[in-house]
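Record 1 of the preview.
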Amino acid sequence: MRRARARRTKPGGQRYTAPRRDRQPARDPVEREPRSRWRPGYWLRHPAIGVVFFACGALILVGCAIGVVVDQRHLRERGETATAVVAEARELRRGVRVTLRMTTPRGAVVRADLVDPPADLPEPGDRLTVRYDPADPGKAYRTDYQDSLAGPVALVALGVLPGLLYGWYLRRTWGHWRDQAEDWRHRRPVPRLGVRQDPFPHRARRS
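->
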């Protein structure tokens, strides 16, 4: 049998009450160190990554435009003109392919691909006047290719205009995406990558 626990009493018959110990305040949760800025979760959320991608794309397109201008200059300076016969002309999934057979002024018979085929696909056996670089006879160009600036201008516009539009967009939303990246770094709740968000969040706040 359990022995009854004796109750302690003070002199005079008053019941003794043990002093209560003050409870220690709850400890604050330990703050975890911020994540590294080099982790994909940070820089994929930071708007600067978009600047890098658009800058690389613009540089590639501008470089292609410069390459076209250089080819045109080489054709003007050292190109030769010849009459070619269409050996093959067919449509592909992306564009068309026209193969020519031509005889150079030196009497050599070569096959060349027409770099800038016309809008109307020629038929095999048709004759075309083309210009080519003797150092690279495998590529032929139409005679008006060397004076046309439509290609370089289109490439530059394709590289610059989207960059300007994206710069205007970032000017209005830079702070939002930067703060979201910092929230992820400091382990605060943020939307998952790939989730569609309001492109102009400040409008929703005002409304």
